[in-house]
Specification:
alpha+beta; five-stranded mixed beta sheet; YbaK protein; 7 helices; YbaK/aa-tRNA-synth-assoc-dom; YbaK/aa-tRNA-synt-asso_dom_sf
Amino acid sequence: MPVPMDAFDEVRPAVRCLDLLSDPVAAAIRSWSGSVPVEELRFVDTDPAVADTALLVDRYGSWLLEQSANCVVVAGKRGGETTLAACLVLSHTRADVNGVVRRHLGARKASFAPMDRAVGESGMEYGGITPIGLPADWPLLVDPAVADTPYALIGSGSRRGKLIVPGKALAELPGATVLEGLGVA
């Protein structure tokens, strides 16, 4: 099921809304080189007060649970070293941080990264972190269900606005690995 774009007042190509995006997201869209044309990435202006999934569902409808994806930042630790990674899973699932993610990162322990570190190192706002424009050295782990969706509603780097992006484009982002079993119910 594609994202019902008519649920939003206005849907525009993200490349025409760079001033509404966080700096790293705008830079990534400016230098877009994926097989999906940049014009297929869309921006919808939403109220920052409803940036969280539960509030978006209340405002726009339950279809969001199946068509939106959450990007969470994880810290994997091993021998005094910490690796930050991002996980992209559909909103009605959660990332298997202590199993699939920990093993993939080769970490002894994995947990959600502290908010201040995730925000500081991504250059994005909490509640709007998105896989587009993440630091180049971060692994991006993508659940196959996200990669297979025609379009996913994701963050825009800030609490204001969302991006609507083909799943294929998300799977092709720099540092992306489609990881079986990442999203669990």
